[in-house]
Prior knowledge:
The complex is a heterodimer. Chain A is of the alpha+beta class. Helices cover 33% and strands 19% of the residues of chain A. Chain A has one domain (3-53). Chain A has a two-stranded antiparallel ribbon. By secondary structure, chain B is an alpha+beta fold. The two termini of chain B are 24 Å apart. Chain B is globular. The interface between A and B is large, with 48 and 78 residues.
Amino acid sequence: MPIGFIKNSLKYRRVINEWQRKYDAMAPRVGDIAPEFELEDVTGEHSIRLADFRDKKPVALIFGSFT
Amino acid sequence: MSLHEIFEQFHQQVRFISIYIREAHPVDGWWFGGGIQESLVKRVFPKVSTDLYDPTTIEERRAAAGQCEDTLKYGIRTYVDLMDDRVNEAYAAYPTRLYLVDMEGRVAYAGGLGPYGFKPAELKNAVEDCLERIN
């Protein structure tokens, strides 16, 4: 494993850990009201709100990226 | 069990929403491309991208999300977080995370911090418990 990659990894791992510590402290826990959102799809033409599903269906949220 | 399998099993009773957030390993960030690390990553995650720069506009982020949706073909519709990362921050989602919200709008399951806390099997159990409470 190249040394540059290892050094980079240590740096970014630290940055991500700090970010996660900061935001996870405020993230919703089981039983909390889920933060509302309204987002558009990949075309930008169709939007969705979490509130649209209240009293209709549970909602599974999958967060991620392509990389 | 994979997310796709969970989706296939429960998509009629549960709405699945994929939310695309900022890149975990862009070329201009914590890049996993080039060299032996890319080979290792591709062995475990063959469909992951290793040639994306972190989007700087919503259009770029939508394009990356569209590529991701087309490549993974989970069948789960993808929505894109705004460039201020507001939804990502509200859910402490970066780099990847799972939640289940019940019909009252309450969190029924909050997955662990990604990547190691990303456990589809836990989501599946939570979905089953949630549906049992409904029925």
